[in-house]
Each structure stands twice: as structure tokens, then as C-alpha cells.
Amino acid sequence: MPLTDIASVADDCGEPTAKRSELLNRRLGNRVPVRFSVFIPAYNDARWLPGTIESVLAQTHQDWELVVGDNASEKDLQSIVAAYGDERIRYHRFDTHVDLVDNHNRTLALCRFEWLNLLSADDRLDPNCLATMAARIEELQAAGTTPAMVLTACRPVDEDGRPATYEFSRSWAIKRLDDGLYDGRAWLHHIAAPGQVPWNVGSLAVSRDVIEVMGGYYRTEIGLSVDIDMALRVSAYGPVAYIDQPLLDYTVRSGGMNKEVARKDRARARMTSHGAVLRSGLAVHEARRQVGDDERRYVRRMIAQSFIGRALQHRYLPDGGGRRGAIGNVARAFRYDPTWFLDGRQALRGMAAVIAPTRLIVGTKERFRARGSSF
Question: Rounded to an integer, what distance in angstroms lies between the CA atom of residue 24 and that of residue 19?
Fold first, then answer.
């Protein structure tokens, strides 16, 4: 199937009209006040919510609002929010409980300011996070441009605040990303490359104008990687500013929802979650800028590699599909890049997924991980 055949995963709003694109380009070229709408979609997060609110209150940059969207919780979150007595904090309880992603989207709709920053109830911002992002935005505006998105590195921690880098990246090595400004081509390459991104959506601020022209924040059909999908699509609308400082404590929680979502993702026959992100993101980039054939080939290669990675997961994870699941995914890798087997490393991974004993796969994966790379 051609990569351009993405009707099921393209932006819901389609390609923006010329008028909306012109408005976006004009706004991105102008200097505007740096005000953040920090929004927390919450559900029964009474244990974690106070710490997150306090991390926002502690910000050295004070031009912000904080919006808490209560997803019809069974626990009393309203009294927790009300106890802080800060007029910049707004609480809204929704009458109906919805999917996690839908609650993110409807909480965002309550925001008023120009830069949108999503926090989970267990995220903790460094006191200088918003100030550092604001300074980078102002620096770029003074130079004649405004980024579509600005984000920082994150610090993975466990529920007790201890470093949890391994739990964050699991079998993936963390990608190296230099501090700087990235155009759409460079950001697409960063997202497509194998490995765990060094940032998290909690220290990511997106221009409201970009979200409006893009037609929304998260897309429910993507599944596991909605945050990566959003960050890739945004980069088609303007440059991305990355700050190589860990200004967010991202809590890696045991038994979180991602585990169940990941299990469902492995059961999907047609496409991996990473593949769906790359396929749809490429389509958005093609609609916004000139995309080279080399970029399309690279995306195909990375989709193929994502199938090989899932083939290995079927072998070493307790809820995997065994050799049968591995063989199916190796076959799908050929569909997207028939030449992947000519890469010696990928050939080794593919053969291991099909014929190697599980204990050998697990041992090899751990040895690679200990060296800071991925098997």
C-alpha cells in the first residue's frame, strides 16, 4: 500500500485552507506574549495531583493559567484544587467519564493562552521549566521566527522519585538529540529513528495557533503513541525548538495504562503504533512542504524495523504471540521495505525473532541495553 494512502490516519480536518494557513504563517512570524496554558486531565489522581499543582505554582515564570479537567472522578479532586486559592487555577468536572485521550482533548478546549502545555497528574515541572521555554521562544521571536513547538528533555523517575531511566526506555536506547532548532525534515528523521525519545509531552509547549490549524491535539485512532504522533504532525507547521535540559520529572509508574495499550498494540495485525505515526505524519508533511524521496524511503525502512521490533516482542514478552506472531511481523516488514534483510543487523534481528531460543533473545537484548544501544 502506498504511503500516501492514509485516509484512515490523516489529520481529521484535512489540509487547512489557504486562508487558515496564511493566518498561521502571519502569527508565527509575529512576537506575542509568552503565556502558558498548563492543563491537567485527571481521573482519581488524588495522590499525585497536589505535587503537580505545586510544581506549577513554583514556576519562576508566572504568566500562566492551570486548568484541571476532572474526568468524572470517583474521588474528590475539587477540594484538592480549591485548597490552593490561586485565581490562575481553574477546575472543571465533566459529567461523563470518557477515554483518556478524549479527556485530554476536551480539557485542552478549556485553555485560553497562546502556549499549551499538557501535564499528567504525576508529572513534576522543574521550577525553571516555563521560564526556560519562554526565554527560548522570545530569543527566536527576536531573531524573526516563532517555533511551532518548544520542548525540553525529561528526567525519568519512579514513584519514590528515584532515577528510572531503564524503566522509561526499556529495551530501547535513548536517542541523542542536540539542543537547537529543527525543521520539518530534521524532526521527521528524529521521530523515525529507532530508540526512545529523550523528552516527554509534559515539558512540551505547542502554539495554540498550530493546534487550531492542525485540527486538534491527540487523535484517538493512533493508540499507544498519540504524543509522538502529535509532536511529529506539529513539526510540519513550523520549526521545533529543543532544549537539552531535563526540566520535567516524568514518573514511570508500575501497572500504568500504557502496559495494556501496548498489549493491544501487539495484537494489531496490520500496523505497529510507530508505523501508524510515521505513515500519517509523513502524509501531513507532504501536504505542508516538499518531501524528498529519501525521506519516504527512510520512513519505509523505519516502519519495517518497527515490525521486526514487534516480532522480537512476540518472542520475549509473556503476553506475546510466540513464533507465529514473530513470523507474521517479519513478513509485514518485507511489505514496507523488501530490502531490509540486506542490512546485516536487521537480518540478524529478523532471524533471531523467528528461530532463536527465547532466553538467547532476552540475554542479547539485555547486553545491548547495558551498552546503551538497542537490539
Answer: 9
Where do you find CATH 3.90.550.10 in the chain?
18-259
Query: Half-sphere exposure of 242 toward its Cβ, with a 13 Å CA cutoff?
Result: 21
Tell which residue, 246, 37, 24, 63, has the closest CA to residue 147: 24
d(CA 207, CA 228) in angstroms, rounded, equals 16
* Rounded to 5°, angle at Cα 302 from 259 and 368: 65
Task: Dump pLDDT digits (tens) for 224-275.
Answer: 789 999 999 999 999 999 999 999 999 987 654 455 555 556 566 678 889 9
Q: How many C-beta atoms lie closer than 10 Å to residue 301's C-beta?
A: 18
pLDDT at 283 over 60: yes
SS3 assignment, position 194: coil
Q: Which of 80, 76, 74 is nearest to 66 (CA)?
A: 80
Superfamily of domain 18-259: Spore Coat Polysaccharide Biosynthesis Protein SpsA; Chain A (3.90.550.10)
